[in-house]
Amino acid sequence: MRFGAAVLRDYEAPFAVEEVILDAGPAEGEILVRIAGCGLCRTDLAVRRSAGRSPLPAVLGHEGAGVVVETGGPDTGLAPGDHVVLSFDSCGRCRSCLGGAPAYCDRFAALNLFGGRSESPGRFTDGAGEALAPRWFGQSSFAEYAMVPARNAVRVDASLPLELLGPLGCGFLTGAGAVLNSFGAGPGDTVAVFGAGAVGLAAVMAATAAGALVVAVDRHPERLAQAERFRAVPLDASSAGLPGHIRRLTGGGAQYALDTTGSVRLINDALRALRPTGLLGLVARLHTDLPLEPGTLDRGRRISHICEGDAVPALLIPRLTGLWRAGQFPFDQLIRTYPLADINEAERDCDAGRVVKPVLVP
């Protein structure tokens, strides 16, 4: 089977849309999906910063959504014609997976980042027959088609705007899941969100939908304006005395804070903005040491890393689409679509902050 895909051949090079080849149909437990749209996530772009760790050449993309074309065997739980959102891969057998925490799968890094799910040699190649890296996050969905483990796929209602749903499998799932799952925020709670990008704004939407008071912190005026439209109180990240502002706005400190920036300064500000017993969740990968200032963890304050919003995708994605139908999670307002052929323009716009969530449409 031949189809178009965006191939990354070098960590410093642009993507190249090329013809690629799948030389076999779905194996047992797999599905072939025709991609309707795929979100461009900063995790895809982080491959450039971690040069040498994720194998190249590769087809990236891990926020895909599409239509099932073919299934491998009768036990996938899916059928041709089903609309699905694709999420991260997991083994399904380790203690974390069996305990309902697939984002902490023992094989998460191997399966999603480093090509750990075995494939027959030459199964996925470029037009010249050169092997491409195994499926990125179980998907490699910067393409017209993707071969996916069925456990990665969540069936959704066919009346939903399928080409826009892909980011519910990772970026929006992470922000919303942090608030709804990790924090369990509800009416009367206070949440401070640091960074109003795709993950942060998803957290803002989820927190307001849950009935919490939300403060959003960012340095981009247009993103603060978007957060305010989602009923958050906007604060400039460069404001003097930022933790004090948040404590005043939240009546003594936020119960929960979420940092999506990885900034050491903002992480310390977030801790100082918490009330006693407050919890700070980190979702961004840290690229430096994290020195904590004296007193930031006093009085029962805690800090925890959150992966994929502590989500079971098959449970959280339907919940988010239900909130969208109710007008409480308007994630579509964050999306700008691009043809797959314009992936490099989408990357530039994402890096420059001109778009919150690019979605590539094959």
UniProtKB/TrEMBL annotation:
Pfam families xref list: ADH_N, ADH_zinc_N
Cofactor (UniProt): Zn(2+)
Entry keyword Transmembrane helix: yes
TM stretches of this protein: 164-185, 191-217
Database matches in InterPro entries: ADH-like_C, ADH-like_N, GroES-like_sf, NAD(P)-bd_dom_sf
Alcohol dehydrogenase-like N-terminal domain: residues covered: 28-156
GO molecular function: metal ion binding; oxidoreductase activity
SUPFAM superfamilies, sorted: GroES-like, NAD(P)-binding Rossmann-fold domains
Domain Alcohol dehydrogenase-like C-terminal, first and last residues per copy: 198-308
Family: Belongs to the zinc-containing alcohol dehydrogenase family.
Protein known as: Alcohol dehydrogenase
Provenance organism: Streptomyces griseus subsp. griseus (strain JCM 4626 / CBS 651.72 / NBRC 13350 / KCC S-0626 / ISP 5235)
